[in-house]
Amino acid sequence: MAEAATQEQTAGDRPLVRFAGVAKRFGQITAVEEFTLDIGEGEFFALLGPSGCGKTTLLRMLAGFETPSAGSILLDGEDIVAVPPHRRPVNMMFQNYALFPHLSVAGNIAFGLRQERAGRAEIAERVAEMLALVRMPDFGRRRIDQLSGGQRQRVALARALIKRPRVLLLDEPMAALDKKLRAETQFELMELQRRLGTTFVIVTHDQDEAMTVADRIAVMDRGRLAQVAAPSEIYERPNSRWVADFIGEVTLLEGMLAEGAIETVLGRFRAAMPAGGRKRDTVWLALRPEKLHIAAQRPADGNLNAIPGTVFEIGYRGDMSIYKVRLADRSLMKVALANTSARGRASFGIDDVVWLSWPPEAGWVLTR
Amino acid sequence: MGRRASIFNIVSVTLGLAFLYLPIVILVIYSFNGSRLVTVWGGWSLTWYRALLSDRAMIDAAWTSLRIAALSASAATVLGTCAAVALTRLGRFRGRLLFSGMVYAPLVMPEVITGLSLLLLFVALDVDRGFWTISIAHTTLTMCFVTVIVQSRLVSFDRSLEEAAMDLGCPPLKTFLTVTLPLILPAIAAGWMLAFSLSLDDLVIASFTTGPGATTLPIRIYSEVRLGVKPEINAVCTIMIAVVAVATVVASLASKRGAVRRERAGA
What we know:
Mean pLDDT of chain B: 85
Strand order of the largest sheet of chain A: 6-7-8-3-9-10
Strand content of chain B: under 5%
Radius of gyration of chain B: 23 Å
Radius of gyration of chain A: 25 Å
Number of domains of chain B: 1
Helix content of chain B: over 70%
CATH superfamily of the domain at 249-366 in chain A: Nucleic acid-binding proteins
Low-confidence stretches of chain A: 1-9
Oligomer: heterodimer
CATH architecture of chain B: Orthogonal Bundle
Shape of chain A: elongated
Structural class of chain A: alpha+beta
Number of strands of chain A: 20
CATH superfamily of chain B: MetI-like
Largest sheet of chain A: 6 strands, mixed
Low-confidence stretches of chain B: none
Number of helices of chain B: 11
Structural class of chain B: mainly alpha
Helix content of chain A: 25-40%
């Protein structure tokens, strides 16, 4: 219920794109099932999921390269299922960029306008404008095979934007870039989207990328929509164990719901009641590693939930260390500790007895 | 294993090349022989090339051959490209396997059988045999070679290029003409060159399907040789070797250049 309200808030009363009960089957295999989603005007929207979850199929249906087996896709309130790809006001940036090797950089960027029979002067002007937009003003006459991976990516972006599409589709746009370049490109893409105000729909399997760039994220699991919400909402208040586990690190404690608390084999922990949860329901307490506090003694504050354990493994990551702590039931709980002191490693060693604690509001109770 | 050639390697390469090219080299050298006798060396000379220029029958035959080769290679390229596109693009249509098998069958079919069956067809249809029947027969012979070459290129063709073109507003047919065709053109050119060479040197099928007034160069040469090898024949053959060699080299360069460009343009 809560996420439906959020969706309506951000997608608006008249969404730009609406998937209504869309399904896609390839022979025996179902790629997308019962998919309903609204995307608002001017949003930077991410479709996120593991490989094979149907996110690319969804994007290709929006571009017109696949026809849904059931349901309808609306753009500006009109059903576009029967419209062929070359008549849709959406443009796509392909995963491998799909630049035409027989055309120059300018020829590639101008391709879309040439199809509209735009005048020579207008084409030249808009191509120059696009080259400036992607900060490659002097590259117009280069051949595609003379460009680096990052430059090709920019040309592909310019080519997809020149027709000023209603929606820009980006299929794993940064998969081929190295980590550093990817991070830079993400911020450039966000700035570009803000400046142009165009609706961007990005498909990615990289949760960090989706969290960074998108206003809203649709998390997909095996062809179905698992949750759609703003990145912080998805991270802090996932609607299922699957989403909690897919996005970031999490420890899940199974238990039974009681008044303002959850009873587990490890003890009773205070937590906020989930919406619609009833007493004695089986629920799971989700704890993010960075929200836990680690100490040698049990904390004095009686309001905190606390649990003892022994350090099992320490992973040093530079900015933080990940501790895996073995609890009384032999399960492992992950705790992240920021390495704020220059000494780096914190003062706990393997097999030390430690106490983990967290305030009641730091945990999130999941009912499924 | 060192990278330097061992004696064994040098010997086997030499023997292999000698086996392949010695007869041709001898033929080429003797085409510049000044002597009237084929087997006696009489010094370097261009006599027989000059003699060729005044041999009306030989020049007519060569002209007929070139026209047939150009015509049948062009027809075979169009048909072969269509077949290749159908085989790679239409997916799993009913009878696809049978169709591809039938396209490839002429590759391994003995030429005598192809020639005989075409002869029977032309006789049954009561067609006057000559220039046109040879052209049709050569189209049949060479089309499958074009299909094989173009199809191998289409299989490795990145379909997302076509999707990108359509996404940018290009209708499907125009996409094929402005994106697909320019990119597979080297393969099509290679197919044409190969078809041209095959048609130029075919004797068997041409002699089955020829008629009065249409003598191709191989038929002419063969009938001359039956009366004894004349030095002019050596000159004709040397020219033919040059033409075919150039066509083959151009064809393989064209397809190799396409492959290299694709490689450099990236995935």
